[in-house]
Design brief:
Strand order of the largest sheet: 1-24-23-16-25-26-27-15
Shape: elongated
Strand content: 15-25%
Helix content: 40-55%
Structural class: alpha+beta
Length: 793
């Protein structure tokens, strides 16, 4: 037997006073690593009047809370531009869909630009590699055994294919490489140096600092060897040049940026697909004829005609016609939904069979599609709590790496037996290059982006990384009854006819016209049931509502009385013949409606808020996963226990007002539970906000969805089990990403510094270090993309 308690009812907390700060979000371009993100956050946080600043590496957006009396959006954007990164304010009159399209186009243009520079740099690097081979004379020591071996293997082939190259004076070759490398640095690598300089001016450092220091040191070393080779020879050193390494480092870093950018586009695919769903044209009905207009020019109140196979251009209400509409993009449910006059339709959903006209009720930023895009974009731009560790490390990472590079240089300079300066410079540059914290910065936001996009495709809107992370750690699930476990509207469940004069359909044909004139929810259930059975609509000849009792009237020449037993007692009509049935129905949580026709008992009907077909399965799944399930309802204890028995819930808290629901959530949290609350009504909003994870049913009211971190777009608790599975899978991916990002640097930096050289003769080259750095970032993004294929059912 489920345990039932009554909730206490303390006072609700006072609402917080309105905040004076305003919030703005704008796109930022040019970021390539976690240190870039940390640097920009620090820069924005220093601006006057800024209360909070958050920059997201994956979505390339900055979100700033600021006091408008002390700062402005234009000034904040300019502060970002001064650091060498790109930033623009969204167009004031642009809808969220137009804004997202512009942002996507901007990122694509950046991707194409980086790809072009990467390809040209790779080609230049190959030329530089071949041109450098004749410069490898006797006694040449690159400090890079692996690269030297590679060049020795290729040298015979190059010597055979281009013998004239070896006849060119070494000085001429060096100066040609000097010019080629300088051109690549100024064109393809310019971004690294301008941003590194901007970071230095702001007393900070980021990935660009590492690349600029590494390639800059190698270039200066090579330039001195080119201009003053005798200086090296006088100190017993070969005047080695590293021009090919400089070009390849720039090329491979750009290749990594290109691959990251492409992979980021894949993680944001769900958002891009949503934006693309918006149809371009709509057929507006004016003066009886159709006029095609751009969808963005639609106005509230206009009537739009939709034909089979077309996407609906805006939100609205059907005024005539009927059809079935595929709402999978909104709910994740593949079965089309029947629509007729008065039905609500959603923009971007697909009309399947019939044709209909609808009146526009929402356009632009207020449309359902725009709200989903805005919510998903905000979610993908948010940070999960697990990212705080990566952010703290990224904030100090670059200075630590620079210090390690200096120590590495000094150690090689002082301890290496030969070519000390050459080996010291190569090792220091390699440390600077391999330690780029790109993978660390991508570890969490890539997973958040893929997971929220995957969830949106399943009809689940998750408001951000924090909501996503909390959902996976829930151990107690609190469910509202009405509209959550049940369908939220009463329906006729049983019809028991006691008089041989009537059949079920004949009884409903007489009773329904009387109930149609009533405004009571139970009467509406009787009318819906009659319509579902195909009983024709007829008019009652008279009607009288009896508040608290039921209704009476005349229909088809018969006197009808329908209501509770007290109403029939007023008319001296005995209900004893159906009392056993009525008692059984009441015990099942149903409301019995006694029916008398022409002064004689004709039967009893049961009306109940019936359980959703999937509730029992979803609740059982939660229990199997070790999650405690509690029903929390304002309904009476008897009805609550009956519903709880049907779905297998043992813990029931009934008869509570909104403040009682809030108190129960607070009590569970105080006992150490991680609590998720699912509800759909205004009375659920305080509890949803107080829970560790608030989950709203989209069939509910807006205030409930505003208070919740997760919204289930289809009325199905199985979507909740899907969301929890996705959350737990996402947390696994995040931990894997962070582990590999940290381990990569823990292992890579010592090897780059030369830890293996004394024992094994292994010294990593700057070129291979840049390739490893690029691949580490791509591996993290690729691991996150696995979430697109994780089994959720």
């Amino acid at each position: 037997m489920p345990s039932t308690t009554s909730g206490s009812q303390p006072k609700l907390p006072n609402a917080a006073s309105p905040a004076s700060a305003e919030k703005i979000s704008f796109p930022v371009t040019g970021m390539t690593c976690a240190a870039c993100q940390a640097f920009l956050e620090k820069t924005l946080a220093k601006q006057p009047g800024v209360e909070n600043a958050s920059v997201n590496l994956m979505t390339h957006t900055a979100s700033v809370s600021y006091r408008p009396t002390e700062n402005s959006p234009e000034a904040l954007v300019e502060a970002v531009r001064r650091t060498g990164y790109g930033a623009d304010l969204p167009a004031a009159d642009a809808s969220v869909l137009e804004d997202q399209r512009a942002h996507d186009e901007q990122l694509r243009a950046e991707y194409l630009g980086v790809r072009r520079k990467a390809l040209v740099s790779l080609a230049a690097g190959a030329v530089a590699m071949v041109a450098s081979m004749p410069l490898m004379g006797e006694g040449h020591a690159t400090g890079d055994p692996l690269l030297a071996w590679w060049m020795r293997v290729l040298d015979p082939a190059v010597r055979s294919a281009a013998p004239r190259l070896y006849a060119v004076d070494a000085v001429v070759l060096s100066y040609c490489l000097f010019v080629l490398t300088g051109a690549i640095m100024l064109w393809a690598g310019r971004r690294f140096y301008t941003k590194a300089w901007a970071a230095l001016r702001n007393k900070s450092a980021d990935m660009n600092t590492l690349v600029a220091l590494g390639t800059g040191a190698a270039f200066v070393f090579s330039a001195i060897a080119t201009v003053a080779p005798e200086f090296f020879r006088s100190h017993g050193l070969h005047p080695d040049v590293y021009y090919e390494a400089v070009i390849f480092i720039i090329a491979l870093v750009l290749v990594g940026n290109t691959l990251e950018s492409r992979a980021k586009g894949q993680t944001a695919a769900a958002l891009q697909k949503l934006v693309e769903l918006q149809p371009k044209l709509a057929r507006v009905v004016r003066d009886g004829s159709e006029v095609e207009v751009p969808a963005e020019q639609l106005r509230v109140g206009e009537v739009v005609r939709v034909r089979p196979g077309e996407r609906i251009a805006a939100d609205g209400l059907v005024v005539n016609g009927a059809s079935a509409v595929d709402e999978a993009m909104l709910t994740g449910e593949s079965v089309p939904v029947e629509k007729s006059a008065g039905s609500r339709v959603i923009g971007a959903t697909v009309n399947k069979t019939g044709s209909f006209d609808f009146r526009v009720t929402a356009v632009g930023g207020s449309s359902t599609l725009a709200q989903i895009v805005r919510l998903l974009r905000d979610a993908q731009a948010s940070k999960a709590p697990i990212q705080r560790l990566a952010d703290r490390i990224s904030g100090v990472f670059v200075p630590v790496v620079v210090a390690i590079a200096v120590i590495t240089f000094l150690a090689w300079w002082l301890l290496a037996p030969e070519a000390t300066v050459v080996r010291a410079a190569a090792a220091a540059v390699t440390v600077l290059i391999i330690a780029c914290p790109c993978a660390m910065g991508l570890a969490v936001p890539t997973a958040v982006m893929v997971a929220t996009g995957r969830a949106a495709g399943a009809g689940i809107l998750i408001k951000g990384g924090e909501a996503l992370e909390r959902l996976g750690s829930v151990d107690t699930l609190v469910l509202d009854k009405t509209g959550t476990i049940t369908q939220g509207k009463p329906a006729v469940t049983d019809v028991i006819v006691t008089s041989p004069r009537w059949t079920e359909s004949e009884l409903l044909r007489v009773v329904a016209p009387v109930e149609r004139l009533s405004e009571h929810a139970l009467a509406e259930a009787v009318v819906r049931y009659a319509e579902e059975l195909g009983i024709e609509r007829e008019q009652a000849e008279s009607f009288e509502a009896r508040p608290g009792l039921g209704a009476t009237g005349v229909s088809a020449g018969h006197a009808v009385t329908i209501g509770n037993r007290a109403l029939l007692a007023d008319w001296s009509i005995s209900t004893s013949a159906v009392e056993p049935d009525a008692a059984r129905l009441a015990a099942e949580g149903k409301t019995p409606l006694f029916v008398a026709i022409d002064g004689e008992l004709a039967g009893v009907m049961a009306v109940a808020d019936i359980v959703r077909p999937t509730s029992s399965q979803a609740i059982g799944d939660m229990r199997d996963r070790g999650v405690r399930v509690v029903m929390l309802t304002g309904d009476n204890a008897e009805t609550a226990r009956a519903i709880a028995r049907q779905v297998g819930i043992e813990d029931v808290v009934a008869g509570v007002l909104p403040e009682g629901k809030l108190a129960e959530i607070q009590r569970l949290k105080a006992d150490g539970h991680v609590v998720a609350m699912v509800g759909d009504g205004i009375n659920d909003a305080p509890a949803l906000a107080a829970a560790d994870s608030g989950i709203a049913m989209a069939s509910g009211v807006d205030v409930a969805m505003d208070a919740a971190g997760v919204t289930l777009m289809r009325s199905d608790l199985n979507a909740l089990t899907t969301a929890i599975r996705l959350s737990r899978a996402t947390m696994r991916i995040m931990r894997q990403n962070l582990f590999w990002a940290f381990i990569y640097n823990v292992i890579g930096i010592p090897i780059a510094a030369g830890a293996l050289y004394p024992t094994f003769g292994i010294l990593l080259s700057p070129v291979l270090a840049s390739a490893a750095m690029a691949l580490s970032s791509v591996s993290v993004v690729s691991n996150s993309l696995r979430l697109r294929h994780v089994r959720l059912s």
